[in-house]
Specification:
It is a single chain. The chain has 447 residues and is of the alpha+beta class. It has three domains: 75 residues; 74 residues, Immunoglobulin-like, CATH 2.60.40.1080; 215 residues, endopeptidase fold (from Nostoc punctiforme) (Alpha-Beta Complex). It is built from seven helices and 24 strands. The strands form seven sheets. The protein has a six-stranded antiparallel β-sheet with strand order 19-24-20-21-22-23. A hairpin with a 4-residue loop joins strand 17 and strand 18. Helix 2 runs antiparallel to helix 3 and helix 3 crosses helix 4. About 1% of the residues have low confidence.
Length: 447
């Protein structure tokens, strides 16, 4: 054998040895990797089973690859045990788990081992219904909810963090008057929301009506204030769903709970439907009556026009008093702003059309008051002062919360709390409004 062939063979042998050493090193590294994975991630066996997940109609939808065994899911902040009672069987790609505020991971298991953990992915439910919100100072709005993962995986920006803040759970809080734009980038999409914070509204008190808030002063608000308050009222009603029971409830809640001042009771000088008097104890128009610019809406006057809070002569009372609303004026205003044109009518029972004619009038008994028949948005009627009417805007296990304009005790448009067992002693009649409203909308029993 010549020297050339010998050198060539040696060269091939050296190359072969290098290849063998490389393969051996690769095998060793692979074994070390598998050992480490087994040691530290022994419960996560097959991450490939999940192709994707989404959040639809308040359910976690998991798109999985084909598998033979039943699989189960759970949302948990820390790794759960195999026998945790909160595991849910995945059926029709649905994971029947409720998310909670804070960091969550999605785990999937078979009968005997955990096979998936979503520690590198995030799933967010973003409220895309609105691009503009209005907040009081300390008011809150839930921009998004993190279903799986945490906010570290989102890109969040805020053009003016002094006006409003956003926390790790997607809750925006109003801080001071002004505007800001908050955006969140998620899944290659950017979602923006304009935030206006204003002291023209206040956070609804959870304990009930704030009897300490002052009466509305004359000319407290400018035209631009009035316009903005009307815009916010319309926004709230649209959130509740216009021309529904919820819209009527929201209109009443807004005037009594979000508006920072109490509207005075004014003994009316007339109605549009009787003597063509408008805005004197009643204001049968959409929006608030806070500025003289609203005079262009007024169809006729007796001793006015004057906005709410300004002194005006009341013919029935035979004295001057601050303009506001009487009981039927308030309820008819609420219904009109909710999208129901009942006309400028009284409380009932008159020979003419009145508010008791728009629903099913029933004698109110304690049994009926304690049943589930009566709903927020229904009307309550009594014979006081020739006819009095209010609207229910809250119901809990023990009480009804009635928004009404009162001329005695706590004068003005207020919310009064009545025990269910005692409601019938104050209101002999209830007007059930299901057939009139037809739809409930986004109805809540309490605010």
């Amino acid at each position: 054998m010549n020297k050339k062939k010998i050198r060539l063979r040696k060269k091939y042998r050296r190359l072969l040895k290098k290849i063998i050493r490389f393969i051996s090193l690769f095998i060793v590294i692979l074994l070390i990797y598998m050992f480490i994975k087994l040691l530290f991630f022994h419960n996560v066996k097959d991450e490939r089973i999940v192709k994707s997940f989404n959040y639809e109609n308040n359910k976690i939808i998991i798109n999985t690859r084909k598998h033979d065994k039943p699989i189960y899911c759970i949302l948990s902040k820390s790794e759960p045990s195999i026998d945790d009672e909160n595991w849910s069987l995945i059926e029709n790609n649905e994971c029947n788990q409720e998310y909670k505020l804070g960091n969550n991971n999605l785990y999937i298991k078979t009968e005997d081992k955990i096979i998936y953990k979503s520690d590198k992915k995030v799933l967010v439910d973003i409220n895309t219904k609105k691009d503009q919100i209005y907040l009081a100072k300390n008011g809150k709005y839930n921009f998004y909810n993190i279903i799986i993962g945490n906010s570290d995986k989102l890109k969040i920006s805020n053009t003016n963090s002094e006006v409003a803040s956003i926390d790790e759970n997607g809750v925006i809080t109003g801080l001071k008057n002004g505007n800001t734009i908050i955006s969140v980038k998620y899944n290659k999409n950017t979602y923006k929301i304009n935030v206006l914070v204003t002291d023209l509204i206040t956070v609804m008190p959870k304990s009930g009506y704030d009897y300490d808030k002052g009466y509305l002063e004359c000319n407290k608000h400018s035209k631009s204030d009035n316009d903005l308050i009307d815009t916010i009222l319309k926004d709230r009603i649209n959130d509740a769903t216009y021309q529904t029971r919820a819209a009527a409830v929201e209109a009443a809640r807004f005037l009594t709970l979000e508006f920072p001042y109490r509207i005075n009771y004014f003994y009316e000088n007339g109605r549009q439907t009787t003597n063509n008097v408008d805005g004197e104890g009643r204001y049968y128009h959409v929006g608030f009556y806070l500025d003289s610019s609203r005079y262009e809406n007024i169809t006729g006057s007796s001793t006015g026009p004057k906005p709410w809070g300004c002194s005006m002569y009341s013919n029935p009372a035979k004295r001057k008093m601050d303009n506001g609303l009487d009981c039927s004026g308030f309820v008819s205003w609420v219904l009109l702003n909710a999208g129901f044109d009942v006309k400028d009518v009284g409380a009932g029972f008159s020979d003419n059309s009145d508010l008791t004619d728009f629903g099913e009038l029933k004698n109110l008994t304690t049994t009926l008051a304690k049943s589930d028949t009566i709903k927020v948005g229904d009307l309550l009627h009594s014979y006081a002062a020739g006819g009095h009417i209010g609207i229910i805007i809250g119901i809990d296990s023990d009480y009804y919360y009635v928004a009404q304009a009162l001329w005695y005790d706590e004068i003005g448009v207020v919310i009064t709390k009545y025990k269910k067992s005692e409601l019938s002693s104050s209101f002999p009649h209830v007007v059930l409004m299901d057939k009139y409203y037809k739809k409930d909308g986004n109805l809540t029993n309490m605010w």
